[in-house]
Every structure is written in structure tokens, then in C-alpha cells.
Amino acid sequence: MLYQRSSDLFDEAQKYIPGGVNSPVRAFKAVGGTPIFVKEAKGAYLTDEDGNRLIDYIASWGPLILGHAYEPVINAVIEKAKKGTSFGMPTEIETELAKLAVAMVPNIDKIRFVNSGTEACMSAVRLARGFTGKDKIIKFAGCYHGHSDSFLIQAGSGAVTFGSPNSPGVTQGTAKDTLLADYNNLESVQALVDANKREIAAVIIEPVAGNMGCIIPQEDFIKGLRALCTKEGILLIFDEVMTGFRLGKGGAQEILGIAADIVTFGKVIGGGLPVGAFAARDEIMSYLAPEGPVYQAGTLSGNPLAMSAGLAMLTALNNKPEIFRSLADKTSYLHKGLAKVLTDNGIKHQINRFGSMISVHFTDEPVVDFASAVKGNNETFKKYFHGMLKNGVYLPPSAFESYFLNDALSYADLDATIVALENIVGELK
User: Fold this and answer.
1) Do 391 and 423 touch, CB atoms closer than 8 A?
2) I need a labelling partner for 135 at 20 to 30 A (CA). Which of 10, 203, 212, 322 fits?
3) Which domains does the chain have, with CATH numbers?
4) 348 alpha-carbon distance from chain centroid
5) Catalytic residues, which ones?
6) Helix or strand or coil: residue 162?
7) Mapping DSSP to helix (H, G, I), strand (E, B) and coil, where does residue 140 land?
8) Which residue in 411, 309, 415, 406 sits closest to 68, CA to CA?
9) How far apart are CA 109 and CA 96, in angstroms?
10) Residue 326: which residues within 8 A CB-CB, separation 6 or more?
11) What is the pLDDT of residues 350-385, one digit of tens each?
């Protein structure tokens, strides 16, 4: 495939935008080469600036669960835009979307809309601290909750130590209140709790992780985490920016059968426009301004265009819950097809799948946490990514990202993807 136009655009972008991109993963640093610039998209397909058509497996990193340019969403945004793009005042549609979200998701009474998943997680942690009167939080190595300072922390030198900043600009003062545990390792959480008695406000977790590839929570881990938080008076925050309204109407809480204290949303809830949200029961949400003392605000929060996109998207999912089964079936079909090709050709691999999230790891060890995911970040993955791209399949350009299937994908598209792997499998040996 020819990527000359993309290459020229990237050269130009680097003159005016740091690294030429507005989010680092887009720069292809993890896989090498020049990023693809998209011209347009429809359904399951991207069309790049060179006119190449690509089968899309990122769906804008998750929001476009029904495919690109889904007409009910597009039409809703167009009609709303004709009446104005932003008012900085309350609108009825904010309540409509809030009412629908609360009806679809278990264990929440009220919801506050913001503008991104980062903002939602940042606000959820502040609310948890305000509600509990405690300062420290526990997060898990490999889980991503946005780029707020509290979340840009790497592991310390042992289970009971606080972390250290892994980005310049994050202070040691911030880092000391962020404790690092290992995903799927309840003992590591218990050690932190024991060493920081009555100091921990919240545990925040991706209930199904998507930022170290797709990592599935072990049942005893996730249930044990809920029990531990309840016992110790710690709020359990589910970061459902990826999983919310994707794994099911009620997200990971519904599918896993685990009640979180605070839930954050993004991606699907915005229908492709910038939207985030956080939600909880009345007792917790009443601490939020203007009702309570915990401050949070945003000029464009509840923007009518974003609300109209989100309402159209959630309405479609609420009215047709069979979409979630359709997506899970397609993901299972893809999993089996890719696994057969790799197994038949002796390529060591692990494939993790949950609902419509899936990832391929080129390692012979089970991938259950960040340490095991790292082992699949290798030259084989880079060859795999670029080989699939040359065969018309766009995958996440990082070994640490989940694929997100959309329901516009046909079984013919899935078969074409499996054939693409067959075409390049010799290069992976």
C-alpha cells in the first residue's frame, strides 16, 4: 500500500504539533514507521489520505461500537447543531441522557457529565477523597486512568512503598498518595492496606483491563477486592471508560456481578464525541458541588452536541441489547480464527478476550498482569502490526492496547482478517 500522503501530512504536522500527534499512541513509536492519516470512515472501514481502505479494529479506541458514521448519531448531532453548539446553561437533553444511563447501569443513582475519561477518573478520585476524608489511593500497574497527575505513577521498591512519578511534571507529593498494586494479585492489595491503615480513600481499577492488552480479572481477585474494600471502608472505583456500555448495558458491574461504589465512563457514552462521566449512589454524589463541598466544574460539560450523540448511541444499545451478544460472537469467531492460524504455524502466542475486547500477545506465558503483558511487546508484534496493515487491517499500534470490535464488522470482514494473518504468518516465525 502507498502511504505517501500520510507521510507528507505527518511531516507537516510535526512542525506545529508536538510529535505530530495529539495523543502519543497515534505516532507509531511502539511499532515504528509513519502513522496513517484518516480521511473518512464508514461502518467497519477507514479510508486513509492515500485512498487505502482498512478494516478497523480500534473504533476510535472504543466509542464507535456500532461503526463509523452511525446514522442515528450523525443525524442527532446535525439537528442539535442547528440550534446552537454550546450555551453554558442547563439543557433538557442532559437530564435525558442522565436518566437513561442511570436506568441502564446498576448501583448508581446520579451521574455527572464531564468532557473526557481522564476528567471523569480525576473527579471520581477527588470525590472519593472528599467523601472518606482520606488521601491515599491504590491503582494497579498497567491500568490507565487518563493523564491526571495521580495516575502517572510507576511502582515503588516493594509492595508497601508508594510510587514515584513516571512523567516529568508529576510531583513527589502527588506520588506519595498513590500506591501501586499488581493486577490479579489480591495479596499485593492487602499488603498496601495493612501498611496504610485508615489512610486509603479508594481503589481504582479497570475491571477488565484494556491498556496492557485485554486482561481479564480472575474471579477470586475481583470478588476479593470488593470484599476487602467493604471491610476496610475503602471506596471501589470501577474505571469503565472502556467497558461501560460495551460489555453489556450495565457494563462490567453487570457482567462480573460486582457492585462498585463509583463508576467512571467515557468513549461509548459520547457516541464518538468528547464525553466522560462519573456516577455513584446518592450518598456519595451528594458530596459534589453545588450540593456538597467537593468542587468540580466544566464550561463545556453537558455540551448539547455531545449529549445528543450519547443519547442516540445509548438509546440504540438499550433498545437492542442483542448487539452485545452479536459483538461477543464476532469476537469469539475472530479469536478462534487467529488462534488456529498461529497454532498451526507454531507461533507462540496468547489471546485474551472478553466480550468485544480482544488482544494478541506473542508470548508463551499466560498474560494476567502488566509484567506478563510486557513479554509480548516484542519484534514479533511489530511485524504482525505492519504485516496486517499492508493487508488492509488496522490494529492498535501498540502491544499494550486492546482491540475494540464494532458491530458493523461482517463475518466476511473477520474472514478477511484471518486471511491477512495467513498471508503474513511466515514473517512471524
Assistant:
1) yes
2) 212
3) 4-69+322-428 (3.90.1150.10), 71-319 (3.40.640.10)
4) 27
5) 144, 239, 267
6) strand
7) strand
8) 406
9) 14
10) 407
11) 999 999 999 999 999 999 999 999 999 889 999 999
